Amino acid sequence: LYLKTVEATWDPNERLSCTRQAAEVAVGKLGNTALAIKAWEQLWQLGDAVDDASRELSRLYRLAGRWADLATFLAQQTERQEGAAQLVTLRELAEVQLSGLKDPDGASRVLEKIVERSPRDPIALLQLARVYAQRKDWSNLERLGGQASGRDVPAHAALDLQRLVADALWEAGRLEQAIA
């Protein structure tokens, strides 16, 4: 009934109100997160109340442990965004790839996009270095550490990055690269 009600009205405020009510009933009374997700997905697809729908879908996907759906959703969001908002969503996507999906390869691809778009981003650089170390991707880790000072990164962040790289290489028995 909810889907028919939302499709029948053209008023975005009424659609948002119906979605909230349906989600509250689904989670609160029925204990069914999947129904709430379906309601918010419908609103998202219609393009109404995008901020509300984004926030709720992100929250509900996490609550339900639907990491693959959250990753797909975040990737779709980045296509609609620009600038700082896109970078924030890409960071969130990298975290979902790494922590939720346990996919360091996917996380490194996302972090590489961030570093490509924002080469001075100390958070992305440090996260990327950690992922390279986790993947035992020593050549990329060493390259990233070597580029730290040349990226015009804040001095303290460059030192943190170089230390992280040196520590990871040292622990891996790559002593010569760690000292260089």
Topology, number of strands: 0
Radius of gyration: 21 Å
Strand content: under 5%
Percent in helix? over 70%
Shape: elongated
- Overall pLDDT: 87
The helix-strand sequence is: HHHHHHHHHHH
Uncertain regions: pLDDT < 50 for 5+ in a row? none
Structural class: mainly alpha
Biggest sheet record: none
For the termini, the CA-CA separation is 66 Å
**Helical segment tally?**
11
Question: What does this protein look like?
Answer:
The protein is mainly alpha-helical. It is 81% helix and 0% strand. It contains eleven helices and no strands.
Write the layout of secondary structure elements.
Layout: H1 2-8, H2 12-29, H3 33-46, H4 50-64, H5 67-80, H6 83-100, H7 104-117, H8 122-135, H9 138-147, H10 155-171, H11 175-179
Helix pairs in contact: 1-2, 2-3, 3-4, 4-5, 5-6, 6-7, 7-8, 8-9, 8-10, 9-10
